[in-house]
Structure formats: C-alpha cells, structure tokens
Protein: Methionine--tRNA ligase
Amino acid sequence: MKEIKRYTVTSALPYTNGPVHIGHLAGAYLPADIYVRYLRAKGKDVVFVCGSDEHGVPITIKAKAEGVTPQQVVDKYHKIIGDSFRDFGISFDIYHRTSSKTQHETASEIFKTIYDKGKFIEETSEQYFDEKAQQFLADRYITGTCPKCGYDKAYGDQCENCGSTLNATDLINPKSTLSGEQPIMKSTKHWYLPLDQYQTQLEKYILEDHKDWKTNVFGQCKSWLHQGLQPRAVTRDLEWGIPVPIPGTDGKVLYVWFDAPIGYISATKELFGLKDAAWSDKHDEYYLKADRKPQTSAASWEEHWKSKDTQLVHFIGKDNIVFHCIIFPAMLMAEGSYIWADEVPANEFLNLESNKISTSRNWAVWLNDYLVDFKDKQDVLRYVLCATAPETKDNDFTWKDFQSRNNSELVAIFGNFINRVVVLSHKYFEGKVMPMGAMTDFDKEVIAELQSYPAKIGASIENYRFREALQEFMSLARLGNKYLADTEPWKLIKTDEERVKTILNIGLQIAANLAVLAEPFIPFSAKKLASMLNLDNVSWDETGSIDLLKAGHQLNEGVLLFDKIEDDVIELQIKKLMDTKEANEVANKVTVPAKENITFDEFSKMDIRVGTIISAEKVAKTKKLLKLTVDTGIDQRTVVSGIAEYFDPESIIGQQVSILVNLAPREIKGIESQGMILMAEDADGKLRFTAPTAKVKNGSEIR
Ligand SMILES: Nc1ncnc2c1ncn2[C@@H]1O[C@H](COP(=O)(O)OP(=O)(O)OP(=O)(O)O)[C@@H](O)[C@H]1O
Ligand SMILES: [Zn+2]
Structure:
C-alpha cells in the first residue's frame, strides 16, 4: 500500500451540449463531492477539479442546427452547468473549460511530447468523406449499423446500444448525418496512439496492480484487454477543437477524447496559477470559492499530477471506463511524466421512471429545473440520489420514491429527532446544554453505539460505498430518534428534571455528531444544524465523542431542517414527464402506409351505420373491454369494444358512433359481440370516436 500524501479527485467533464441531469449527478458528481467533502473533513490535502468538455462533433452539429457558432453553444451551457453545480453544492475547487488557453497549451504540449518521442503512428488511410458537405466525417457525423449488435443508429465512434467503441469504417451502411448521403472514401493522414504497444504495461497496471477496482470497472477493463488493443486515431479532420500542434496539419484537431481528460490537468494548472493575484478576478469565470482556497499544501500543480504519493481518483459513469482506465493511462504512459489513475470508482447508470435517461429525448430531470422547482431543497435530491445511486447495477429514480424518502426518512427520522431535541432544550432549559448526570445502562449502550459510527461511515466512504455510508448515517439519526422515544423526556420532566438534563445532553451530543457526519452528504442541512447547535469547526476525527457540546453551551433558535413534500408537487413533476413522453411518441409516430386497393364492390359489402351508445359497463376481469348497448336504428345490440382504457363507461352514454353492423358476430369473454365500433387512433395511441359532426338519425348509412 502506498503512502498517500495528497489526493487529486476528478469528475467526468460534462459535455456542453445540454444541461446536467440527475443521471450525471448520480454517476459522476455527487459521489465525488461526498468523497471530497469527507477528505476535507478528515483534514486531507485534496484538489477537486472539473470543467466543461467543449470540443467534439455534437457541439458543431448543435451549433449548425441552431444557427449559432460552436463558441456560443459552449458559452451558454458552460454557464448553465457551472451555475447549477455551484447551487447544488458540488464543491469543485475549480470548474474550468476545455476551450481555455491553458487547456489548449497543455493538450498541445502533451501531444507534442508524445510526437517528439516518436510514439505516435502516422498513417494515411481512406476515411469517409461527405462530398456534398465537403467534409470528412468523424465520430458523430456518421451513423450506421453497429457491427457488434446490429443497432441501426450507431455513431462513428461508439454504439450507444451495446457500448462498443467503434471506428467509422466499422459501420455497416454508413450515412452522413450532415447530408444524409452515403459517404465516399477519401485519403487523409492521421496520428494514432498504438494502444497495442501498451498492452503488456496496461495488463500489469490493471490486472495485477488493481485487482481491487470495483468489479464493474475491473470486468470491463479485463474484457477490453482480452480482446486485444488496437491503435486508435487521436486526430480528426474538423475545424472545432485544439489544432494539431505540428506543421502542415491545417484543418485537423485533437480527438475530443484525447483532449478531454487532459482537461483535469489543465484545470489543476489553472487553479495553482491563480493562487494569488488573479484569484479574485476569476471567481465567476471558474466558479472558485471566494471563501475557501483548496485545502492543499502542494506548492505546484505538478505535485498533484506527477508525485508518486498522490492518489488520483476519477469519478465517472460506466460509458467512460475505457477512456479513463485504458486510453488516458496509455497516453500518459507514452508521455512519461505523469501518474496514472489509482482509483476509478465508476458507477452504472441511473434510469428515470424505468426509462433510460436521454438528453436528446428530453427524458431527464434537469438540475437547473430542479433548483427552480424545489427551491432550497438541494439536500433532498442529494439524499435520494445517494440512497439510490447505481453503484453496482443500473437503478431507477422515481418521483414517488423521492417523495417517500423525503417524508418518511428525512422528515420523519432525521428532522424529527433534531426538532425534538432542540425544541425540548429550549422549552425546559432556555436552550442551554445541561450537565450530564448519572448514566443508565441504556445511556451507555447508546453512547457506545454512537462512538462506532464515524469509523463505519468513513470506511464505507473510503471504499466508495456511498449508499452504505448514508445508511449508517441514517442509523445514527434513528438511534437518536429511538433514544428520545424510549426515554420520553417530555413525560419525565414532571417528576425527574435531573434525568431529563442527562437525556437531552446525550440527545444533543448525538445531534452534534450528526451535524458533522451529515456534511458530506447533505451539506446545506448540516450547516443549518451546526448553526442551530451553535457548533463550529469540528473535524471528522473529533466525532464519536459525547463532549462536542459543553455543559452551559447556548444553542440558537430551532428551525425545521426538512418539510413534507405533498402529492400535488410530485404529480406536477410526473405530469411533466408524461407530457414529454407524449410529445416523443407523436414525434416518432410514422403514418401507416396505405393498404392495397380494393374494388367498389368490396367496399359496398360493408354496412356502416350511425348509432348511439345507450348503455356501457366494464367487462369484469378485463382491463380494456367495455360492453356497450348501441341503438343502431335497426335494433339495439350488444358490442364488446376495447376502449375501456380511454373512456369511463358513464361518460360515453349518448355518444354517437360509427358501427359496422354486418360484421359476423363473435364471442368475446363469454359475451356475443354483434358489430364493431369504428375508432380513430391518434399518434399518441389514444382512441377517439368517429361520429358525424352534427347529430343524425340512428341507422343513417355511412357511404
Ligand atoms: N444516466 C446516467 N447514469 C449515471 N451516469 C451517467 C448517466 N448519464 C451520463 N452519466 C455520466 O455522466 C458523466 C458526464 O456525461 P456526459 O456529459 O458525457 O453526458 P452523456 O454520457 O453524453 O449523457 P447524455 O447522453 O444523457 O447527455 C459521464 O461520466 C457519464 O458516464
Ligand atoms: Zn452496438
């Protein structure tokens, strides 16, 4: 085990083609933030860096679609994303961006070093070219069928269905996303990182030295290495990006995945460069903390990237594993002077109400929207996303679960305990901490349990088991709640005030411990609680003690930490999602092609009439069927119709309908159905009656 002197913690650079959603948070940002806040509370040296990933094809596609420049696209989302991270309490030391000068310099320098060492392969090859757009088609400029899984919307660099990393030339039936045309082949020169030459070194690095990585991460790496690594192009024929830093390469830029991870390095560089003079000038631009410089004694950014005693930790989602565990380390191996990731605690994916979160389909809970709709409730989302984080397998976020975790855990357990102990202290002892008297055996048991929590929570965090850590934390809140419920100070106050002093002292010590231990998870509430308790500057290592608040210490007024979230608030969010779903269905619905021609005689065989529904009831034990009685003008007959999901029986009595009366009767669920009601099916799948625009006599023929 290496001795760790300092930590460099990174979260995946969010791609600036949209705001951040709850999937991003659960995958790469919230766990990192919890980890870093914990390290800070432990007094460790740490920098936490991130920034916007601003290059690459999707940005240029978006810019084109919106009629603006790529720079305008990234400026817009850099601000939306940066603001929302800050307001959500993601405590980056710097939120940088890859379009910055420092990034251009750093990425160019690293490329140049590898180039000068002769470690790239230079190769002219045939690449797809769109003749209409006069452009080479890299990455997302080309789509086609994935050769691995057959998905027909795979991109030139990756299949989002099976997760395979692809080369554009692997695609079956390639099409340009610029013109929709089939591209031609044209030769062009590119630089390749020969990953195959690093195979042995990577195998040792991962398969031998990092058997401790999370199973999902280790498993993916193993399968990559097992397949055998191939050289990978690290340049592209594009305008938007970091120009290839060698002469005669006009119109070529660095591949976005070569550029992006270097963003972590340049962010750290920028941070250290700003330490003095420029510190206050750059607060807004880089989301620096006015009140807190990074907690590190390192003299330069290099110590955080080149020292063997630095622990480098990348927080990412599962689709980024190969880039962080194989490609980025291989780049740094080729460069030669950097350390490689020590830990890559990648998460699986969070889904939303059983569907994959998607920026393009607007199936997401957007952080910037959440912060408006749930003002001052950052901690509720932080709590729920941590409690349900997809640490070992994909997981689902639902609004009902969000509501119930708030109401039955945060409000009913944690909030309730804090409220009781603070309110009672004010009521009985003017908000003063009373001295501890004789302890009962139960008191001693509770205190012993309290003492075990900081180490348990800490160990879970250090092992990247944030859900478990949060559960331990809540167990301590539960312990506090139970302690008061069992000792019932509100009853004892009439007979034994001395005993109540001890009970509330113990209760307040638990509350004070919770204030410190809560900080990594729910920092806004931790701060409120600490201020209620008039508690400051307690470090993680001081917790577990029953001496955090001295006898005679004055508490401040109590405030509620959490409040109940009502049904209507949740229903509104669910409705938003339903509206999105409907809009997507309508957008995706293709009109069914026309059927084959028929003769007039064939048409005339159908006897369609106008009738009126005169009674309707649900068919027992079915979801879809209604039993209708229809006055057809000829007779009154029974029709079984599959419309129960769309209409209440009572609401359709009196409705005029079109009915095919000479359809041969048939038995449905034991009822003879004599005819068929004609319905129109809308794009969203909803059924509507087809009826004359004004009332007509029952039995009128439709011809
Ligand atoms: N649903 C999700 N669950 C967990 N992690 C996710 C999810 N979606 C994205 N991530 C992670 O968030 C980080 C930033 O993602 P990035 O900006 O690259 O967006 P993305 O993966 O293209 O997502 P989207 O397609 O939804 O915009 C990455 O590490 C990615 O793995
Ligand atoms: Zn695929």
